[in-house]
Design goal:
The complex is a heterodimer of chains A (537) and B (238).
Chain A (H helix, E strand, L loop, with lengths): L3 H31 L5 H5 L2 H34 L6 H7 L2 H4 L2 H12 L4 H8 L11 H25 L3 H10 L3 H29 L3 H6 L8 H10 L4 H24 L22 H31 L2 H6 L1 H37 L5 H13 L2 H4 L2 H12 L5 H43 L3 H29 L3 H6 L7 H10 L3 H29 L1
Helix pairs in contact in A: 1-16, 1-19, 3-8, 3-10, 3-14, 6-8, 6-14, 8-10, 10-13, 12-13, 13-19, 14-24, 16-17, 16-20, 16-21, 16-23, 19-20, 20-21, 21-24, 23-24
Chain B lengths: L6 E10 L2 E9 L4 E5 L6 H9 L6 E6 L2 E2 L10 E4 L11 H9 L7 H13 L15 H15 L3 E5 L7 H18 L2 E5 L3 H7 L2 E6 L2 E7 H5 L5 H7 L3
Parallel strand pairs in B: 3-8, 3-9, 6-7, 7-8
Antiparallel strand pairs in B: 1-2, 1-4, 4-5, 9-10
The chains are: A mainly alpha (537), B alpha/beta (238).
Chain lengths: 537, 238
């Protein structure tokens, strides 16, 4: 259906994306491998490295287990109470941690679970001596549960709500008890979702950087990612960083391979549509249990967010906004975010164009099919090589050629663009597919092509998803601390970096105020990036 | 002959959003009653009230002479067959049908045999271990009938049970339903918008329009009814 020129252009765009991303990921990886110190195996498995690896896995396993386990009752209760007052807002609240920069979430959690936090105040006034510590393993677990329980709960809720409404009528009519309903209806529905959700959460926790940096960090609570950062930034020990980075790549590769075994769960989270009417759980005990579970979960999510707002409000926001350091950081952050988002869109566009050009051909050669598959898996390359590892590789590559700081903004933007790529693809690809299916034949038969097709057909049709993808990618880049952590300095400060350094110099009031500002910006952008998405579905 | 009516809706009122419903009728035991009418008229709401999926705002619902107005769907003496999704998709046919006998699936040897017999009766002998996903639409509806059989409830409610099937299959399924009715003599309420199905299956007809019963009586009279515009439009092919 496409003209020959369009075909060629599509393939060229895909090849360019492939080349760009491939080079950007493989060059630093190659640099890591080349600078790998001799006797790699020896240092690779020294006691300290092993303890880091063990902690990385331990915290990831525990975080995943707790997040999934605690999400089960939340999802069950929310699914059963399809008419719970404010239900839709509770479900929207569960989407907030996903759009919230991790650093800001951590600040909110410190506000509640920290030494001077609400919980410890309560415990102390109740006469308890040893307060809960937000630092170390406990803190990392609390934080990972805060970010991932809602994700797991939403995925499970979606799994339950995907059941046809007749299921609930049938169970009611057959007189299934709560236990029978769980056994024959809810458990199988959850079982279909849990492996995928757990795999995803394990991957997120195993590569978690910011939370561990803020809440862990000591020798007893360091993950690979943070250890890479520390060996490069504080110990200035590139060989060690290289070695840890290679270990990290091996670890993520193993996890990704393991994940490939599970059927890919579609990550569409539920609850925004009309929940099917339920007829079970009418007895007071069930109602009390569900209410308790929902309220506790809501409180657990809401309190840290409230803490961000309250302590941010207490800071001198007026002074912060007029502060030159803030303006500088905001400007840097915005330009990096915009560059990253546009770059991400461009790469995604290339991939999508090439894939649809290949799909359009009647006869596909083996090579083209392989090319298409390579493009499809491209966006998961970034998962294999986490941002800190990418940064380390590029750091090693650029160092011989001059000041790393002068290249840093571009590197950060490129790393952020890559991080956003899977999300951008998820928004854009289906949108483009439907758009093409809807307009392809008509445009071809009318002979509309080139600029006029772009202006009259494609732009109006794809404007919305493009903006959604753009704002989502910007939110991701704006809130990211991982890429900037390696390169941040007095000359190069983004908003998260500014917050992190204020936190480090014990100017927590400033950090709180800035966190509120950044959090609001990111949430607005994420909301813009997701709300329209749901409307469309 | 004075027997207890199978279904009695005593001045039942219900408001759903903007729509108002009012039903008042009595159905004799052992009859096949077709609930019909234009789409959106309230046929399914009528069935939902009887089944217990909707609770009336006013009036009473009696099944087998017992007031069930506020009862849970599981406490009512009835079985249900929907248009689709009658089976739990991840459970095999044996479990699906066994759940109709005991909601905790604690089955005696005799009851297990009963499940197999019911499957054989609807033409699915040996299908115990099959999952619903491997069956055709017609076979799934047959399995739903098998469950209704083992439940032995005096009342069977069917909500457009054949609407998703092709015409030939619809005919054979209607024959099966009629045969089962001959054996069990239960009371059947079947919601349908298909006038042919009314002709084929019903003893009595309830015609619902705009949330209320316009006609309730014998099929013979319904099919020759010419007084009402809505009904004659429905009965006569245009």
């Amino acid at each position: 259906m496409l003209t020959r020129a369009e075909q060629t252009r599509g393939l060229a765009a895909g090849a360019a994306s492939l080349l760009l991303i491939g080079l950007f990921v493989t060059l630093p990886t190659a640099a890591l491998l080349m600078t790998a110190p001799d006797g790699l195996g020896q240092t690779l498995f020294d006691a300290y490295t092993l303890s880091i690896l063990r902690f990385t896995l331990l915290q990831a396993v525990l975080s995943t287990f707790l997040s999934v386990l605690l999400a089960v009752p939340v999802a069950l209760s929310l699914a059963r109470r399809s008419r719970f007052p404010g239900r839709i807002w509770i479900i929207r609240l569960m989407a907030v941690p996903m759009g919230l920069p991790v650093l800001i979430g951590a600040l909110g959690l410190i506000g509640i679970f920290g030494r001077q936090g609400l919980l410890n105040d309560l415990l102390t006034s109740a006469g308890l001596r040893n307060p809960v510590s937000i630092y170390g393993l406990t803190g990392i677990l609390i934080a990972h549960v805060f970010f991932n329980l809602p994700l797991a709960a939403r995925l499970m809720l979606a799994g339950l709500e995907r059941l046809p409404p007749e299921t609930w009528r049938l169970s009611a009519s057959l007189g299934l008890s709560s236990w029978s309903t769980f056994r024959f209806v809810e458990r199988p529905a959850l079982a279909a979702v849990i492996p995928g959700a757990a795999g995803l959460i394990f991957m997120l926790c195993a590569t978690s950087f910011t939370l561990v940096l803020v809440l862990g960090g000591g020798p007893a609570a360091t993950t690979l990612e943070v250890a890479i950062y520390q060996s490069l930034r504080f110990d200035f020990d590139p060989p060690r960083a290289v070695m840890l980075a290679l270990l990290q790549i091996a670890l993520t590769a193993i996890i990704l391979l393991g994940l490939g075994r599970f059927a890919t769960t579609d990550r569409s989270a539920g609850g925004e549509g009309r929940a099917p009417k339920r007829f079970d759980g009418r007895d007071p005990a069930a109602l009390a249990w569900d209410t308790l579970v929902i309220l506790l979960a809501t409180l657990f999510l809401l309190l840290p967010l409230a803490s961000i707002v309250v302590s941010g409000w207490r800071a001198d926001l007026g002074r912060l906004i007029t502060m030159p350091a803030f303006r500088q950081a905001a400007l840097t952050s915005l330009s990096i975010a915009l560059t990253a988002a546009l770059l991400s869109l461009l790469m995604a566009g290339g991939i999508i164009k090439a894939r649809s050009a290949i799909a359009d051909r009647r006869h596909q050669s083996k090579h083209l099919a392989a090319f298409s598959t390579a493009l499809a898996t491209l966006s998961s390359l970034v998962l294999l090589v986490p941002p800190v590892v990418l940064g380390t590789g590029w750091f090693l590559l650029i160092r011989p050629f001059g000041q790393v700081t002068s290249f840093a903004p571009f590197l950060i933007a490129a790393i952020n663009a890559l991080m956003a790529l899977p999300f951008v693809m998820r928004v854009l690809e289906p949108a483009v597919e439907t758009h093409v299916a809807r307009t392809r034949r008509l445009s071809a038969s009318l002979g509309i092509g080139g600029i006029s097709r772009l202006r009259l057909i494609d732009w109006p049709g794809l404007r919305r998803p493009l903006f959604m993808a753009l704002s989502f990618a910007m939110a991701l880049s704006l809130g990211d601390l991982g890429a900037v952590a390696l390169f941040g300095s007095n000359d190069l400060t983004t908003l998260p970096w500014l917050i992190y350094s204020r936190l480090g110099s014990y100017r927590t009031h400033d950090a709180d105020g800035l966190a509120l500002i950044l959090g609001v910006i990111c949430l607005i952008l994420t909301a813009l990036g997701t709300v329209g998405h749901k409307e469309k579905q | 002959m004075k027997t207890t009516p199978a279904v009695q809706l005593d001045t039942v009122t219900l408001k759903l959003g903007q729509a108002d419903f009012f039903f008042d009728c009595t159905l004799a035991a052992g009859q096949v009653t077709a609930i019909t009418g234009p789409s959106g008229s309230g046929k399914s709401t009528f069935l939902n009230l009887v089944a217990g999926f909707e609770t009336p705002d006013g009036g009473r619902i009696l099944l087998e002479g017992r007031d069930v107005t506020g009862s849970h769907p599981g406490e009512r003496p009835l079985s249900l067959v929907f248009q689709d999704n009658n089976l739990f998709a991840h459970l095999d046919l044996f479990t699906n049908i066994g759940l109709g006998l005991d909601p905790g699936l604690k089955l005696s040897a005799a009851e297990r045999q009963e499940v197999s017999d019911a499957l054989a009766r609807v033409g699915l002998a040996g299908y115990e271990k099959r999952k619903p996903g491997t069956l055709s639409g017609g076979e799934r509806q047959r399995a739903a009938f098998a469950r209704a059989l083992v439940r032995k409830r005096p009342l069977l409610l069917l909500d457009e049970p054949f609407a998703a099937l092709d015409p030939a299959l619809r005919l054979s399924m209607a024959d099966l339903l009629a045969a089962l009715h001959q054996e069990t003599h239960n009371t059947i309420l079947i919601v349908t918008h298909d006038i042919e199905e009314v002709r084929r299956l019903a003893d009595e007809v309830i015609f619902i329009d705009a949330g209320t019963i316009l006609f309730h009586g014998e099929k013979r009279i319904f099919l020759t009814h010419r007084d009402d515009d809505a009904i004659s439009k429905f009965v006569l092919p245009s």
